[in-house]
Amino acid sequence: MSKSQRDAVIQGYGHVFSRNPIDRGEKERRDETIISKMAESSDSLFLPLRNLDLLVDTSELDEHPSLKWIKLEQLQERNITNTPIFLGILEGTYRFAIDVTGEYFQDQYLKTLNPHLRFIDVRTCGEMLEPGDAGLAAQARIQTNWHQKYKYCSSCGSETTMKRGGQVRSCTTCGTQHFPRTDPVIIVVVHDGDRCLLGQSRGRLQQTNTYSALAGFVDQGESIEEAVAREVMEEAGIKVKNVSYHSSQPWPLPYSLMIGCHAEAETTAINMDPEEMTDVKWFSREEVLQSLDGNTDILRIPMKLAIAHHLVKSWALGEI
Q1: Measured distance CA(301)–CA(313) in Å, rounded
Q2: Rounded Cα distance, 230 and 222, in Å
């Protein structure tokens, strides 16, 4: 698929966090000298993260809030020595994420720079930032989080060091290479004529009347189609067929790839797993359309931030 075709697909689905404009710099990563040099260059830009929240300029002078990139000089002024993570190249400039958790970038200091600067969580960034910035925010958080969690080798327990600008961590003792983790998750809207199957899992949705697509992690040695069939059977007790792929969304909480699908129901009697789900129901197309239009309190669909919203909407509008 060409870049223009890929861009058209991405823009067509428009998922939040899915429109990252950066060139991830595969060729540049092959030379550690280049990455080290650019990490110490006054021409490079750095995106600070504090407790995994991202620095955002919320100035009302701008039409939209935006990520706040800073120069090396500001990092040096605050005596920040954490190793920056190379995100890639954007508009001819090397871009890095850097963890500033601690006493470096407290709110009092931010006020001296710009009273509109805030550290904002990635979910909120997805709601308020332009698509490109939201994608960059997701990438920065995912990579920073992974590096914080995987500082030691899972093979021998020794410390690991960052390589290829953050694309790899290498064990200092046994040499094992560890690559950034991405957890594949299927999320599926099952349909049966003019009905679709939605569920309410235990957690933040159970206190509301919000219902979402069924979802679950892909097991090792399992295809997407197999994962869809297994998860739907486990959560709802329903057998499915004709699984089709719709689109995907990177999800930065913490580092998942949501694989959106549709599937036809082969059976329709619900046998819900009460330990995992609080409710599973069939909803009519009319009920879903009313929910999408905001004309009913009986059913609420996940917000547009989530791929589940778009999966439900595409079924309701007959786009599959």
Answers
A1: 9
A2: 10
- Superfamily of chain region 183-316: Nucleoside Triphosphate Pyrophosphohydrolase (3.90.79.10)
Domain ranges of the chain: 3-149, 150-177, 183-316
DSSP for the chain, please give it.
--HHHHHHHHHHH--TT-----B--HHHHT-HHHHHHHHT-TT-EEEEEETTEEEEE--TTSSS-EE--B-HHHHHHTT--PPPEEEEEETTEEEEEEE-TTTTT-HHHHHHH-TTEEEE-HHHHHHHS-HHHHHHHHHHHHHHHHHHH--B-TTT--BEEEEGGGTEEEETTT--EE----EEEEEEEEEETTEEEEEEESSTTTTTTB-B-EEEEPPTT--HHHHHHHHHHHHH---EEEEEEEEEEEETTTTEEEEEEEEEES-------TTTEEEEEEEEHHHHHHHHTT--SS-BPPPTTSHHHHHHHHHHTT--
Question: pTM for the complete prediction?
Answer: 0.90
Write out the CATH class of domain 3-149: alpha beta
CB atoms within 10 A of CB 293: 8
pLDDT for position 10: 45
| Number of Cβ within a 10 Å radius of residue 288 | 24
> Regarding beta strands 214-217 and 195-201, do their DSSP bridges make them parallel or antiparallel, or are they unpaired?
unpaired
The crossing angle, in degrees rounded to 10, of helices 285-292 and 307-316 is 130
Rounded distance between C-alpha atoms, residue 184 and residue 169, angstroms: 21
| Tens digit of each residue's pLDDT (9 = 90 or more) over 238-257 | 999 999 999 999 999 999 99
Q: For the segment 65-101, what is each residue's pLDDT rounded down to a tens digit? A: 999 999 999 999 999 989 999 999 999 999 999 999 9
Q: What is the pLDDT of residue 12?
A: 47
Residue 23 and residue 39: Cα distance in Å, rounded? Answer: 16
Instruction: Answer whether 3-149 and 183-316 agree in fold.
Output: yes
